[in-house]
Write a structure and sequence with these properties.
- By secondary structure, the chain is of the alpha+beta class.
- The chain has three domains: 2-47 and 131-172, OB fold (Dihydrolipoamide Acetyltransferase, E2P), CATH 2.40.50; 180-383, Ribonuclease H-like superfamily/Ribonuclease H (Nucleotidyltransferase, domain 5), CATH 3.30.420; 417-600, Alpha-Beta Complex (Palm domain of DNA polymerase), CATH 3.90.1600.10.
- 36% of the residues lie in helices and 24% in strands.
- The strands form six sheets. Strands 14-13-12-11-15-18 form a six-stranded mixed β-sheet, sandwiched between helices. A five-stranded mixed beta barrel has the order 1-2-3-9-8. A four-stranded antiparallel β-sheet has the order 5-6-4-7.
- α12 (454-461) packs across α16.
- The longest helix is centred in the middle third of the chain and has 36 residues, at 348-383.
- It is globular.
Length: 616
């Protein structure tokens, strides 16, 4: 049996002999922390898809499930928590992930079934969660090296295929040093918006953190950083060759999901060029992520920084130029998009400027990647989802998948996302934080008052969570608070509950709610990391720790806001409105107390305020 440690870069599943096979893509980690030339694809055909069924008649439900076609692989009664209440469910295991969407409606319609759960967790994500494996971390693989596998067409001599004999294990969480390459296309566009059927690629800019910095083109012979080639076809072929020969882990672009990769795919197809860049020998593919398609290369992580930056910082617009200026305080070279073809056609100084612009684009993109990717890498490892997916998730989705993983650890069953009948959620909205408009004029002797992690602190201290919220109705919302209320008649004594101002929502003080418990662990871990930052004198360690605490801060601050998001699995308008109500109360009380000491508030917003000191 072979054992090897790799950095887990990517994961998917394929079908072989009517069986789902998980494929894990990674690279062997070297002693210096970098990814090595050795590439690994690990195969695991032992994992099976499953869902949970909530029966209202256990015996009849088992009989109904036994008569399904195709028949489930396994039907078993198991114990899990539903809003902290220990309950019996039926775990139904299928042969193939595609059986789940085929059979879930049939199962749901049985009279013996009250509901189904966890039917909408993608198979490869389920694998990561159940095996406690984290992308971008070091994992240990054990199994047999095999010569080939039908879905792997690569001839790369550095590739090894391992058929796993046991589940992978996470063994290390140090930051991997990744080889990052940025690219950008310039297109001759005399008719305005480029058309991939007619308008040729005139430049392919490439920059990397491993020494490559160039522009591929059919012109520019006199420029040192330009590789001049005979045709557009040769340019694209060289681009593919550079990626294949340079052990690239991450490819970054700016709006590359929507423009660069679709465009180069169309142009490559005109010349019958294979974009077979995947570790398994597969070509560039486009996968549905959210409302758009995402360019995917198996075993190489593609990150579109445009999508990342829309969540990383708040700006009026998200052009490459604007983002670069915000992050680094420097302006990059600009060429008007509608004049690119003129610069190309005119030659001379304008052509040189266009080459400078092309190189500057990819150098700027690489700088942005090196500045911002560490946070995304850390979030991928904390949330436990592939970087390819995480880079295309809204912050609320990132927090939700973190909670899904934690629910598995707590043995809690995961609520479903809402269906069409629950669209009434869209008409509800919670009152926001307190805002005091700024007093006009120039002010001196100003001080700033700021609550540290106000909303996460409220969630923890007031135990704001749907599983400890006392409800007057039962059904789907039956939870530990209702259970305790019935068993111990807690409602008679309101000292057992936290009740927010303005509302009559009641949150049991004990036990600790699921989400407050998770946030408490996040906040506690962040405080430990911040203490390590203070103690260490190693600048590299300090930088790594800062990224880790920033990731945890973002995660904690995101969780309070998604209680009121209509698509959130743990949606609760009562939770959302209670948090902001307590927040408004705290900031108003603090402003009033500050005034007693001579600090008059002149502006306030949500979790802090500015005050003018006037001892009179």
């Amino acid at each position: 049996m072979e054992k090897v440690n790799i950095i887990l870069l990517d994961i998917d599943y394929i079908t072989h002999n009517d069986k789902a096979v998980i494929r894990i893509f990674g690279k062997e980690k070297q002693k210096d922390g970098k990814t090595g030339e050795k590439k690994i694809i690990a195969l695991d055909d032992s994992f099976e898809p499953y869902i949970y069924v909530i029966p209202n008649d256990m015996k009849q439900c088992q009989e109904d499930l036994e008569n399904l076609d195709p028949k489930p692989e396994k039907i078993e009664i198991i114990s899990k928590k539903r809003f902290q209440i220990e309950s019996e469910f039926i775990k139904v295991t299928f042969n193939h992930p595609q059986d789940v969407p085929k059979m879930r409606d049939t199962i749901h319609d049985f009279q013996s079934v009250d509901g189904i759960r966890e039917h909408d967790i993608p198979f490869y994500r389920r694998y990561l969660i159940d095996n406690d494996v984290f992308p971008m971390s070091e994992i240990e693989l054990s199994g047999e090296i095999i010569d080939s596998f039908p879905t792997i067409k690569s001839n790369d001599e550095n590739l090894e295929i391992i058929k796993l004999s046991q589940a992978p294990k996470t063994v290390g969480s140090e930051f991997p040093e990744l080889n990052i390459l940025s690219f950008d296309l310039e297109v001759r566009n005399p008719h305005g918006m480029p058309d991939s059927k007619e308008d040729e690629i005139i430049m392919i800019g490439i920059s990397s953190n491993f020494g490559i910095k160039k522009v591929l083109s059919t012109k520019g012979e006199d420029l040192e950083f330009v590789d001049t080639l005979s045709s557009e076809k040769e340019m694209i072929e060289n681009f593919v060759k550079i990626i294949k020969e340079n052990n690239v882990d991450v490819i970054v672009g700016y709006n590359s999901d929507n423009f660069d990769f679709p465009y180069i795919k169309d142009r490559a197809a005109l010349y019958d060029i294979k974009l077979d860049l995947g570790m398994d020998g597969s070509s560039l593919k486009f996968l549905r992520r959210g409302y758009t398609n995402a360019a995917s290369l198996k075993g190489i992580i593609h990150v579109d920084l445009y999508l990342v930056m829309r969540r990383y910082i708040s700006l009026d617009r998200y052009t490459l130029e604007r983002v670069y200026l915000e992050l680094f305080g420097k302006e990059k070279i600009e060429v008007p998009g509608d004049r690119i073809f003129e610069f190309w056609d005119n030659g001379g100084e304008e052509l040189d400027n266009l080459f400078d612009y092309s190189l500057d684009d990819v150098e700027s993109t690489l700088e942005i990647a090196e500045e911002t990717l560490p946070l995304s890498l850390e979030l991928a490892r904390i949330v436990g989802q592939p970087l390819f997916d995480l880079a295309r998730m809204a912050t609320g989705q990132q927090a939700e998948w973190y909670l899904v993983r934690k629910a598995y650890e707590y043995n809690e069953i995961v609520p479903n996302k809402p269906i069409g009948g629950q669209s009434s959620r869209n008409s509800e909205s919670a009152v926001g934080g307190y805002v005091k408009e700024p007093e006009k004029g120039l002010h001196d002797n100003l001080v700033q008052f700021d609550f540290r992690s106000l909303y996460p602190s409220i969630i923890i201290s007031k135990n704001v969570s749907p599983d400890v919220l006392l409800r007057k109705h039962l059904g789907e919302n039956y939870n530990i608070a209702n259970y305790l209320n019935e068993e111990k008649n807690l409602e008679e004594d309101e000292t057992n509950y936290n009740i927010p101002p303005e509302y009559n929502n009641k949150f049991a003080k004990n036990p600790q709610g699921f989400i407050p418990s998770v946030i408490w662990n996040v906040v506690s871990e962040r405080l430990k990391i911040k203490q390590k930052m203070k103690e260490t004198e190693d600048p590299t360690e300090k930088k790594v720790l800062k990224v880790q605490q920033d990731a945890l801060k973002r995660l904690a601050n995101t969780m309070y806001g998604i209680y009121g998001f209509s698509r959130f699995r743990w949606y609760s308008m009562e939770c959302a409105e209670s948090i902001t109500a307590w927040g408004r109360e705290y900031i108003k009380e603090t402003m009033k107390k500050a005034e007693e000491y001579g600090f008059k508030a002149i502006y306030a917003d949500t979790d802090g305020f500015y005050a003018k000191y006037d001892p009179k």
